[in-house]
Amino acid sequence: MQAQTLNKPETTFLAPGLPAKRKASVFWVGTVLGIVLLACVIFSACIGALSISLAELWQIIAFKTGLTNVAKFEEQKALVFWIIRLPRVCLAVLVGAGLGIAGASLQGLFRNPIADSTLIGVTSGASLFAVIVIMLNVKYLGVISEIGGAYTLSLAAFVGAALTTLLVYQLSKLTGEGGMTTMLLCGIAINAFVGAMTGLMTYMASDEQLRTITFWNLGSLGGANWTSVLAVAPFVFCSVIFMPYLSKALNLLVLGESQAAALGVNMTVLKRQVIVLATMGVGSSVAVAGTIGFVGLVVPHIIRTAFGPDHKMLLVGSAIGGAIVLTLADTISRTIVAPSELPIGILTAMLGTPFFLYILWDQKRRKI
Questions:
Q1: Distance CA 356, CA 66 (A)
Q2: H helix runs in 175-310, sequence order
Q3: What is the pTM of this model?
Q4: How far apart are CA 196 and CA 312, in angstroms?
Q5: Does residue 318 contact residue 106 with C-beta atoms inside 8 Å?
Q6: Residue 266 class from Cβ within 10 Å (0-12 exposed, 13-18 middle, 19+ buried)?
Q7: Is residue 9 reached through a cis peptide bond, with omega within 30 degrees of 0 on the bond before it?
Q8: What is the CATH number of domain 2-11+27-367?
Q9: H or E stretch at 341
Q10: Over 70: is that where the pLDDT of 333 sits?
């Protein structure tokens, strides 16, 4: 009976004619948000300590791609664009997309509007392993960078995120039936333990180590280069490409775990897929950029409020919306206190907190 239900067309659960409308809506929402993202990328690429006009930007790209043989721009601006600014913008897009789609998928999985990657230990695990590497290696980070091991910290953070998430998932199966409530409680317990270990390591840190730990936890895209972009891209692309295929199951999960299972959703497989894909996106993002809060929490709420709760639209919109938000946030963080740079984690928290409170107030007002 379940196999037959799984093979039925989507119209079984939707009103006649809705799938076509929904696909069209997803297409147009993605197109509009994509245009906004492109505008944000161009804006971010032009703004900085060394400003680049739109005409100069076009000349730089056209000359590099062979569309023109005349270099009508300063060589310094071309170097800044290709080596410094464009990798940073690309990394902001990737990290924002990974955080946004992970937040939307986890909110759907836990059926909790305030769920994010901290619930399954991704952020806390990455922080703990990053602190351990800093404690053991801070005196030699410069030497390691020179011999090609500059990504030891990022690799350790990603491994920490993956291992902590795996521990939460396994404990939820050992201590219960692996339901979402059990996983949530295990996540809270493991996060508390990992946070205590991180606090202990921070307490034992020297002044130099403490400074490095603090700046890593505040989040920054200042170390962006093409190597970090290429390292993050495969993980974020996997999350962004494959997560929307789970939208139908997440839509059915709104009815409850038992009802979704009765309609043919394999809850064990769904939980595993969502957690793995979310960990890939968030783990790789945290590994290269540090802790950046509120993107995965606020962006899905914005998309849900603007375009509705359908997870197909929500996941796609959250990925693009996260990229837009983080691109703009990074542009502000590196220009608002120029020539210094404000850690992007501070900015997202300062802007995200009041906005999130407004969303909660607005939702409550609409229910009255």
A1: 46
A2: 180-204, 207-218, 226-242, 247-253, 257-262, 267-289, 295-307
A3: 0.86
A4: 38
A5: no
A6: middle
A7: no
A8: 1.10.3470.10
A9: none
A10: yes
